[in-house]
Design a protein that fits this description.
It is built from 22 helices and 13 strands. The protein is an alpha/beta fold.
Length: about 575
């Protein structure tokens, strides 16, 4: 659709110059003004001419009528003026001769924009604090981050996915105290991350009753930073147990990383950045702590070092950013975290700018809303969490029971149940705008009807089932013979535009909603049009090709949002 939109924008710009050659409106400006009408009965594209009234000094109605009069362009079936809008309808011939062949030729590469050649994007996502459980609160950063990585790779960028694990910090001081007081190796070896969770919850509850334990935790972490080998050995063991548990969950999401360089990797690089802050006269002492004063920028001070000299998150983040620029020379470095950390990123991004690093504007924070389960807020400290592995297990069991009822003879049911169960959770999450808070409901997510993962995966399986029955390839004339065929092709043609918008806004929900649009369009076509049983050979062949095109685009789009393809359900 982008190509025809550009052609239409250029033709409209020519008409505008005839009205007023000094309007200053070129084809690029007109392209940005073109909209998709809320009702396709109005047309496929629309230009709201009230946006042109000031520059052209005419009413929107006059402008629309003037542009529509004598408007001719290959690929446009009709241009009409309605209440100040120029409505345009794309011709079926263009869809048949241009759009469908292009999808079939490029297959799952169709819709890939040429944006990132020679550019590197670093993405920091997932990044859980270790010695804590991998719970539903980590779902957002993981699937949003990996989707953004897939989107940028699709657009030609070289991407580096970093799982910047929280393997350093005061939480490990807490774990040291908890393990030394109540833990033992056998219990942790057998219980894994669940045993660590129990210790973490216990120490936080104990700190509430005895605040002096918090001082003990800080002291234990300070010993780690100073190289105490006993604490470091215990720390390495705790990290190993946590990473192993997290990797099992990531495999279910088919998420992997190019780097697992965690916070601990920057202990040796932080002093140089602290010294640079001193050299830039940015560092101040406040009640024994080292800070950067950001009052003139409307922010609280950014803490760099605690009173005991130990590091904080901003210190490590600055050192990590410098290291990543040195290593990758990134075009963008994207951080995907909850919206509760917006201020944290604003602060240290500003500090990086004040330090004189000219790439500060290549740092991008992508925040997302919080997750609750049936209205309950989640918190690791209190033990009120739902582990992702447990949520996935429940979704898989539910999917398996639905399949046993609907299709008892299904082969490979366990693998398909996992793909559908995990996919349902991912789609349910990514369908929403990322900044919105989500109240997770498993029953809604697993429905095979409506705006759900199972619905779109079932649609993909339907295309596969039809194509399996095709005995020979079709090489005849493409004939668009009904509205459902035309509507489906127009929906598929919007893929590249949706990908561009998703990258521009760092918004995977754009792709999830596009997938749903395609599924709705295809299922309407499927129910209203005979495909394999169509009597006319050209009609039958065209509808088979439409099914193949739908499969290609859905399969491609699925991969952009961590959704597995299911050839049967």
């Amino acid at each position: 659709m982008i190509e025809i939109k550009r052609m239409i924008a250029a033709a409209i710009a020519d008409k505008i110059r005839m009205i007023n050659e000094n309007s200053g409106l070129d084809a690029a400006a007109v392209f940005e003004m073109l909209e998709y009408p809320p009702d396709t009965k109005m047309g496929d594209l629309a230009l709201p001419c009230f946006k042109l009234s000031k520059s052209l000094r005419r009413s929107p109605v006059q402008i629309a009528e003037t542009i529509a009069e004598g408007f001719e362009l290959r690929g446009v079936a009709e241009a009409s003026a309605v209440n100040g809008y120029l409505n345009i309808r794309i011709s079926n011939d263009y869809l048949a001769e241009k759009i469908l062949p292009e999808i079939l030729e490029k297959k799952e590469k169709y819709g890939a924009p040429d944006l990132g050649e020679g550019k590197t994007v670093v993405l920091d996502y997932c990044s859980p604090n270790l010695a804590k459980p991998f719970h539903i609160g980590h779902l957002g950063t993981t699937v949003i981050g990996h989707s953004l990585k897939k989107l940028h790779e699709f657009a030609g960028y070289k991407c580096v996915g970093i799982n910047y694990v929280g393997d350093w910090g005061t939480q490990f001081g807490k774990m040291m105290v908890a393990y030394k007081k109540w833990g033992d190796k056998k219990t942790v070896e057998e219980g894994g991350v669940d045993a660590l969770v129990d210790l973490y919850v216990r120490i936080n509850n104990a700190i509430s009753d005895d605040p002096s334990l918090a001082d003990e935790a800080r002291a234990e972490f300070c010993k780690m930073e100073q190289g105490d080998e006993e604490n470091l050995a215990l720390w390495r063991w705790l990290v190993e147990k946590s990473l192993k548990a997290n990797d099992e969950t990531l495999k279910q999401l088919d998420v992997s990383f190019d780097s697992y360089k965690g916070e601990s990797a920057y202990t040796e690089l932080m002093p140089a950045q602290v010294q640079k802050l001193r050299d830039c006269n940015l560092l101040k002492i406040d009640d024994g702590a080292s800070i950067v004063d950001l009052e003139k920028y409307g922010m609280p001070p950014c803490l760099i070092l605690k009173r005991d000299g130990s590091s904080l998150y901003p210190t490590r983040d600055i050192a990590a950013a410098v290291d990543r620029m040195d290593m990758y020379n990134f075009e963008k470095c994207i951080y995907v975290t909850s919206n509760q950390q917006i201020l944290h990123f604003q602060q240290w991004f500003k500090v990086v700018e004040l330090m004189g690093y000219d790439w500060y504007d290549k740092l991008v924070h992508v925040p997302y809303g919080t997750v609750s389960l049936n209205g309950a807020k989640l918190a690791t400290r209190t033990g009120n969490v739902v582990l992702l592995k447990d949520l996935f297990a429940a979704a898989i069991d539910k999917s398996r029971s639905i399949m046993e009822e609907k299709n008892p003879d299904l082969r490979g049911r366990d693998d398909i149940a996992e793909a559908v169960g995990v996919g349902a959770i991912v789609f349910y999450y990514l369908f929403n705008n990322r900044i919105k808070d989500i109240n997770f409901n498993l029953e809604d997510a697993l429905s095979f009807e409506g705006n759900t993962g199972p619905y779109v995966q079932y649609t993909y399986a339907r295309t596969c089932s039809i194509l399996e029955k095709v005995k020979e390839s079709y090489g005849g004339k493409v004939v668009i013979s009904c509205d459902e065929e035309s509507a489906l092709l127009k929906t598929l043609s919007q893929y590249e535009e949706r990908v561009r918008n998703a990258i521009r806004d760092y918004e995977p929900s754009v792709i999830a909603r596009f997938i749903l649009d395609v599924a709705f369009a295809y299922n309407k076509f499927y129910h209203n049009c005979q495909i394999l049983s169509a009597e006319d050979e050209n009609v039958r062949g065209t509808r088979i090709l439409l099914t193949e095109a739908t499969k290609n685009v859905l399969g491609s789009a699925f991969s952009l949002i961590c959704l597995k393809k299911t050839e049967r359900i």
